[in-house]
Design brief:
With 104 residues, the protein is α+β, with helices and mostly antiparallel strands. It has a single domain, classed as Alpha-Beta Plaits (2-Layer Sandwich). It has three helices and six strands; from the N terminus they run βββααββαβ. The strands form two sheets. It has a four-stranded antiparallel β-sheet with strand order 2-3-5-4. A two-stranded antiparallel ribbon has the order 1-6. A hairpin with a 4-residue loop joins strand 4 and strand 5 (66-71).
Length: 104
């Protein structure tokens, strides 16, 4: 069943130079396992489309039940940092992405 990430996790964001980092944290180990399986760098890049023109890297932080995605060279090249300097709206938008999950 398709479930929005908002039911499985919460997000944080930051900007460092030209890169944007988005952290997606599962509420518990069950949700984290779903994130690891369903949320790939390619899927995040496809979700943001042309707003993330560079490569996307994924890093797993199992002790924190988190995945961090770095959108390389995305700051200022398709994303309006004047409006949202911390890219909070970007992290919130990612919560709309639907993934396969037994959790509803």
């Amino acid at each position: 069943m398709k479930t929005p990430l908002a039911r499985l996790s919460h997000t944080r964001s930051s900007v460092c130079g030209g890169d944007i980092a988005l952290a997606v944290m599962g509420w518990d180990t069950e949700e984290y396992a779903i994130l690891v399986r369903e949320l790939t760098a390619q899927r995040v890049k496809a979700f943001f489309g042309s707003r993330a023109p560079g490569p996307v890297s994924r890093f797993e932080l199992p002790a924190l039940r988190a995945l961090t995605f770095v959108l390389h060279d995305a700051a200022g090249k398709g994303l309006a940092l004047r409006i949202d300097p911390g890219c909070v709206a970007l992290a919130s938008a990612l919560l709309l992405l639907e993934v396969e999950s037994p959790i509803t």
